[in-house]
Inverse folding.
């Protein structure tokens, strides 16, 4: 391959994408804001472009600046990473209009899957298992109350566009619903530029299980494996693992194959993650489709031996799936990822500052990705993710033991991190036994 990839992002995803670009023989250009002038990824690239600004709007969310960076560095393709503009159809369209390859699905998929109620309709038409939900809600609160009555309380008020748990509010009766509606609209408008909201039935203690899909737009699609992302805080994933513990393997494998068939029939292209909720008695229900690389993709790589980022790039460059992945890999062993955040481990408030010490662990079957290095500055402008630590083992217990040891050996000073909570979670009896669900964090904190 002869191409240069501009990575239009920051932080831990950048060295991960660079890793795959180097394996493929591709040149790499990176960008940074003024706040990230000391970013650890800057030394890994062939070309570096300063976007200026400190806030996301002035840097990593500026489509004109990113296109200028691509032109200035001679990039022929753009990898959007995750977050920021990775699922923005206007960005994908602008990249392709500039004559560049956008490393991700076609803009029509970003548009279709980015609107949650539209995605639900689309996937329901393919036979996807669905939980009860409403359509888009108008301004009349009576309409929302009628929809909630039809679904049955408790319900979840959700933005129709966006994700990451932002703007999701629970309501257990009509009084709570009335309060949640306007607040959710306000949060959705501020975060996603759209005040559209809808309702879903609220599952109190579900599992969050997602399926990694690769597709080529020609009808070819495969599910690599599933991941469990149930350990969350405020709807944000904290620990992810593959395979999902304690579920019926035949059921999970059959659903993964079924989902791949749906995505292939739709003509979906490139990489995608189909997120599902699972609860005892009712089984799986569709949540959403993420049309980008997931933060937690590496646990699937570890158990399948597949370089997902390289596959994503090759599919974007036009290779058919059967060439990118000649044989479906068999999942072996277990892998777990922990997200280290710059935050108080008790109150979970953000913690910014200079990293007076930053020494990542080096150990067998452990991978670490970070956008920081010793002496660097963690600012309040961006997501507080400091590092991702991934551990693999022949068994789940071995993977968890290796992850715990890696976290114990990760030296970070100058800021506070959630490492104490992560180790507490890994050692909790319910988590160790695989009895995971989205409310487990509250139980861990209360124990």
């Amino acid at each position: 391959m002869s191409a240069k990839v501009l990575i239009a992002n920051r932080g831990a995803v950048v060295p991960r994408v660079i890793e795959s670009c180097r394996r493929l023989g591709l040149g790499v250009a990176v960008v940074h804001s003024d706040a990230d002038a000391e970013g650890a990824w800057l030394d890994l690239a062939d070309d570096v472009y300063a976007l200026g600004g400190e806030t996301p709007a002035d840097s990593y969310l500026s489509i004109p600046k990113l296109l200028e960076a691509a032109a200035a560095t001679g990039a022929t393709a753009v990898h959007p990473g995750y977050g920021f503009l990775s699922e923005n159809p206007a960005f994908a369209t602008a990249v392709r209009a500039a004559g560049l390859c956008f490393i991700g699905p076609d803009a029509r998929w970003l548009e279709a899957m980015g609107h949650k109620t539209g995605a639900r309709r689309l996937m329901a038409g393919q036979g996807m298992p669905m939980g009860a939900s409403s359509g888009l809600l108008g301004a009349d609160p009576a309409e929302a109350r009628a929809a909630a009555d039809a679904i049955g309380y408790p319900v979840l008020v959700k933005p129709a566009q966006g994700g990451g748990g932002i703007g999701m509010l629970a309501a257990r009766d009509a009084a709570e619903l009335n309060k949640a509606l306007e607040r959710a609209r306000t949060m959705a408008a501020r975060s996603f530029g759209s005040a559209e909201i809808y309702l879903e039935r609220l599952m109190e203690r579900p599992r969050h299980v997602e399926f990694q899909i690769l597709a080529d737009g020609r009808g070819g699609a495969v599910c690599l494996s599933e991941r469990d992302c149930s350990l969350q805080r405020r709807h944000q994933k904290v620990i992810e693992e593959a395979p999902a513990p304690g579920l019926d393997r035949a059921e999970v494998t059959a659903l993964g194959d079924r989902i791949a068939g749906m995505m292939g029939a739709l003509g979906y292209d490139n990489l995608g993650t189909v997120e599902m909720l699972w609860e005892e008695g009712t089984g799986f229900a569709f949540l959403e489709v993420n049309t980008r690389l997931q933060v937690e993709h590496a646990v699937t790589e570890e158990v399948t031996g597949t370089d997902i980022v390289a596959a994503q790039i090759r599919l974007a460059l036009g290779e058919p799936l059967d060439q990118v992945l000649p044989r479906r890999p068999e999942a072996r062993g277990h892998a777990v990822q922990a997200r280290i955040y710059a935050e108080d481990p008790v109150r979970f408030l953000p913690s910014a500052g200079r990293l007076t010490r930053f020494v990542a662990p080096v150990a067998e079957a452990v991978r670490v990705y970070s956008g920081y290095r010793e002496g660097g500055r963690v600012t309040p402008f961006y997501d507080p993710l400091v590092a991702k630590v991934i551990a693999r083992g022949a068994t789940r217990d071995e993977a968890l033991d290796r992850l715990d040891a890696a976290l114990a050996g990760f030296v970070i000073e100058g800021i506070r991190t959630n490492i104490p909570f992560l180790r507490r979670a890994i050692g909790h009896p319910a988590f160790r036994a695989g009895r995971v669900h989205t409310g487990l964090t509250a139980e861990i904190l209360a124990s």
User: Anything to note?
Assistant: The chain has three domains: 4-103, 130-201, 207-446.
